[in-house]
């Protein structure tokens, strides 16, 4: 699938110049497609816009002029995933019947390489990384893309048709897809998340369901048999279903039996040899095995990765131990479920560092998982809500600070020998930090300063 047929005679408006928008605009310009870029940031402060302008791309910055649609006879709008559908340009495009894509859809039209599409409310980064590492360990040709790193369109533009494109996909990205069809798809789980963006649970589920919707009988859909929502959403897929379950023993698919990880009832490796911490990671591991075994990866490669892989950065990442206090960075825990899973990983006393963007929800769901929490250090917009939570649970030490750097120091000062100091915010970072990665890096730096 190449843009020669689909986009060559189209006029494309790229809205938003974050990583994905810049990649989309650059590639379309290289392909000779007529592309116009619109970004809210003023041109003089917009390095990406300046680079594109030097290449000859028309860039309009500082406002969103609706007249662009008529001036350039726009046929397709490609938007940054984070831009809401309430945006004036997006609303105008939809009103005119103009397709609104994310650059994942563009990526699909740029290559004949097969996609592995991975999504879910939690665990998709770990799973995507595991799939990629196992394919590399088995000398399979694979590239990693999407929400985890390099923009999907940039990877697809360079990919050859014999390379797998292992793609982590958010609901924001999937919502803007039309024809995107992964050869192997996975929806790990579905919990309430990003409802401020999608407005309803139904809209969120429909966005996630896009991972399955366009598949055919020659594709494979990996399905979490333990999640009723996932199994319901997967019914739309015509693909062959491959199931995994942490709770049930399966004849077909991935499961655990008598301390052994099985796939299609054949042993893959002993569970005791897996070094990735946390019971919640079993779901990610079984899903990964379904994907890589479908792609032809040998057990030896799976064993090699799972016996050495300790996790991804910002997801239950062990940082260091200082005076017998262990520090963990779980900055990627941007919702309540992720923090629940983090808390369930420890049986030692925990000092929880939490807070961030206020999406209007409370945190009562955390209460059953807070038995080991001896203190809370909170920050950001939701600090008052965590203070209320601590008071209701009778936690004696609850302290508000300005940011994660102060939180690391405050937690250390409150800690005792043998404590776990856990950054697991249960909130997005955007009230104070550009990304959860930036938040996590600031925490890591602050921890190392304590030495």
Automatic annotation (TrEMBL):
Its EC number is 6.3.2.9. It holds the Pfam family MurD-like_N. Keywords: ATP-binding, Cell cycle, Cell division, Cell shape, Cell wall biogenesis/degradation, Cytoplasm, Ligase, Nucleotide-binding, Peptidoglycan synthesis. It catalyses: UDP-N-acetyl-alpha-D-muramoyl-L-alanine + D-glutamate + ATP = UDP-N-acetyl-alpha-D-muramoyl-L-alanyl-D-glutamate + ADP + phosphate + H(+). ATP binds at residues 120-126. Pathway: Cell wall biogenesis; peptidoglycan biosynthesis. Residues 314-427 form the Mur ligase C-terminal domain. SUPFAM superfamilies: MurCD N-terminal domain, MurD-like peptide ligases, catalytic domain, MurD-like peptide ligases, peptide-binding domain. It comes from the Bacteria. Residues 118-291 form the Mur ligase central domain. InterPro entries: Mur-like_cat_sf, Mur_ligase_C, Mur_ligase_C_dom_sf, Mur_ligase_cen, MurD. Signal peptide: none annotated. It is an enzyme of class 6 (ligase). It is found in: Cytoplasm. GO terms for molecular function: UDP-N-acetylmuramoylalanine-D-glutamate ligase activity. Belongs to the MurCDEF family. Cell wall formation. Catalyzes the addition of glutamate to the nucleotide precursor UDP-N-acetylmuramoyl-L-alanine (UMA). This is UDP-N-acetylmuramoylalanine--D-glutamate ligase. It comes from Bacillus changyiensis. The gene is murD.
């Amino acid at each position: 699938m190449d843009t020669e047929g689909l986009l060559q005679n189209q006029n494309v408006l790229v809205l938003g110049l974050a990583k994905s928008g810049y990649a989309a605009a650059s590639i379309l310009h290289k392909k000779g497609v007529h592309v116009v870029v619109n970004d809210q940031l003023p041109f003089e402060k917009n390095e990406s816009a300046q680079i594109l302008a030097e290449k000859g791309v028309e860039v309009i910055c500082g406002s969103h002029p609706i007249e662009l649609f008529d001036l350039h006879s726009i046929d397709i709008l490609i938007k940054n995933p984070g831009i809401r559908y309430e945006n004036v340009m997006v609303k105008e495009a939809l009103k005119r019947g103009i397709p609104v894509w994310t650059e994942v859809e563009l990526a699909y039209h740029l290559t004949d390489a097969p996609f592995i599409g991975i999504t879910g409310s939690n665990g998709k980064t770990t799973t995507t990384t595991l799939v990629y590492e196992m394919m590399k360990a088995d000398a399979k040709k694979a590239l990693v893309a999407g929400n985890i790193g390099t923009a999907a369109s940039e990877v697809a533009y360079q990919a050859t048709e014999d390379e797998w494109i292992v793609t982590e996909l958010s609901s924001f990205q999937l919502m803007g897809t039309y024809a995107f069809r992964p050869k192997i798809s996975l929806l790990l789980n579905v919990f309430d998340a990003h409802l401020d963006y999608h407005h309803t649970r139904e809209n969120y589920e429909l966005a996630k369901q896009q991972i399955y919707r366009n598949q055919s009988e020659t594709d494979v859909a990996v399905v979490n048999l333990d999640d009723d929502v996932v199994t319901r959403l997967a019914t739309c897929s015509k693909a062959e279903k491959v199931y995994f379950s942490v709770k049930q023993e399966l004849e077909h698919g991935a499961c655990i039996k008598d301390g052994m990880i099985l796939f299609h009832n054949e042993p893959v490796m002993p569970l005791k040899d897996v070094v990735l911490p946390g019971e919640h990671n079993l779901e990610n591991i079984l899903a990964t095995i379904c994907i890589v075994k479908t792609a032809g990866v040998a057990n030896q490669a799976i064993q090699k990765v799972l016996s050495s892989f300790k996790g991804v950065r910002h997801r239950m990442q062990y940082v260091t131990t200082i005076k017998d206090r262990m520090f963990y960075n779980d900055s990627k825990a941007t919702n309540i479920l992720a923090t629940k899973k983090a808390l369930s990983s420890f049986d030692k006393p925990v000092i929880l560092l939490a807070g961030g963007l206020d999406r209007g929800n409370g945190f009562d769901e955390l209460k059953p998982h807070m038995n080991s929490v001896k203190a809370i250090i909170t920050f950001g917009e939701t600090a008052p809500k965590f203070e209320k939570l601590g008071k209701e649970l009778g936690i004696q030490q609850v302290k508000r600070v300005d940011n994660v750097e102060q939180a690391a120091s405050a937690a250390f000062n409150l800690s005792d020998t043998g404590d776990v100091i856990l950054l697991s915010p249960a909130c997005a970072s955007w009230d104070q930090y550009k990304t959860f990665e930036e938040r996590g890096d600031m925490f890591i730096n602050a921890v190392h300063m304590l030495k």
